[in-house]
Design goal:
It is a single chain. The protein is an all-alpha fold. It is about 65% helix and about 0% strand. It has helices spanning about 5-10, 15-30, 35-45, 50-55, 70-75. The chain starts with a helix and ends with a helix. The mean pLDDT is about 90.
Length: about 80
């Protein structure tokens, strides 16, 4: 299994809405991320579903500004 396939598997979550956003993100943006953005995305994937979802829909403040560019891409989907 290649790295992108593993990430796609990790994007399968307990919330349907989050699954959809993450799968679209992988389809449209994942291949264009630089190494730093890939690391940030991995950190975001380690968050609990509700925490990540709340950051994506902007109901929770982003804990670190370095995540903003990746979150913006997630919010486009």
């Amino acid at each position: 299994m290649n790295h992108q396939a593993r990430v796609r598997w990790r994007c399968r979550r307990g919330m349907l809405e989050l699954d959809i956003v993450l799968q679209r993100f992988v389809d449209h943006h994942y291949g264009q991320l630089d190494e730093h953005q890939l690391e940030l995305f991995e950190v975001l994937l380690s968050l609990p579903d509700h925490d990540l979802w709340n950051m994506i829909i902007r109901t929770t403040e982003v804990p670190d500004n370095q995540f903003r560019p990746v979150l913006r891409l997630l919010q486009e989907n």
